[in-house]
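In this section we walk through a basic example: taking a raw amino acid sequence and producing a predicted 3D structure, encoded as discrete structure tokens. The instruction is simple. Fold the sequence below.
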Amino acid sequence: MKLRLAMIGGGQGAFIGAIHRMAAALDGLYELTAGAFSSDAEKSRATGQLLGLPAGRVYASYQELFEQEQQRPEAERVQVVAIVTPNHLHFEPARQALESGFHVILDKPMTFSLAEAKQLEQVAAGSCKKLCLTHTYSGYPMVKEARQLVAAGTFGAIRKVYVEYPQGWLSAFEEGSDNKQAAWRTDPARSGVAGAMGDIGTHAFNLLEYVTGLQVERLCADINTVVPGRRLDDDGAVLLKLSGGASGVLVATQVAAGEENNVRIRAYGDRGGFDWQQVDANTLLVRWPDRPAEIRRTGTGYVGSFAQHNARTPAGHPEGYLEAFANLYRNFALTLQAEMTGQQAPPEALDYPSLAEGIRGMAFIENVIASGHSDQKWTDFAV
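The resulting token sequence is shown next.
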């Protein structure tokens, strides 16, 4: 049973929309049925035509999409709405989608502000519909392996965590050229109060809390705008105090010229530690104080159930970003299908980011920017 999917945003020239469509298609669990792909009706129509959708299921606005789809028979109506717009256009489409009876897959960060995130949580609770937030890196099998090992106490009590996300694509004033992605990500009216910390810092933050199971309780941030003329931060580092007494360091920068997207996390407990990085995503390096390091690999029979569930190919066949993204779509679909058939989804399928992670992410953005502007050394993490 394929889930009928609609998309808001993601028209021609939009990077993340194509990623969402590939992720949704990978396991054959969704069928792209409708869309409002642009605020420009003609561009939306052209994108729908390119994707092979019937003209009657391509809409000029998301409001029209919800209104028209609600009027269709239940057997034809879309069931899930993917929202792949810039940050300032997350809340209202998501709110209306939930209130109109549709499940939501939403690009991160969840909303434009923490206040909106909390309001969206209330809307979701009242709608009885589910929401999946696309924190891609939590979809990697070896990230899930690290999480399962930490939860099992394999490394003992976590003491230290390092997480970093270096990029170099904004090391020049790209928003001054015809670069659509740079333009909205560096615009406070569309991105929000944060630049790099909202765009990639939230990924690093989510990865830290997801893998370790710890929560940030206090932080001390150094936030920078390096490129002249830029209106939002493009670089930063944050010292963290975590629940359970652990400490951490988070680095996110978009001005590391020559860097690509090698997000990385290392954590150390009193019995051992691990190291994972996207450049070698199939590998989890596990370190011990009294014996040689281990190399754990995706697709092998010795990894845990969560890593096995989220791998598609035998060991040695690389799986990457698209597969990690698709794991979020697949787990969300399996959860919805189980609910529709009156079954209980297994824990491995229920493992996808949702509203709680979205609220924590928005709190991270606002707390880290406030700390960066404050003269106070340490500030409490307020949610």
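Looking at the output, two observations stand out. The two ends are 39 Å apart (CA to CA). The CA atoms of residues 49 and 55 lie 7 Å apart. In the next section we compare this with other chains.
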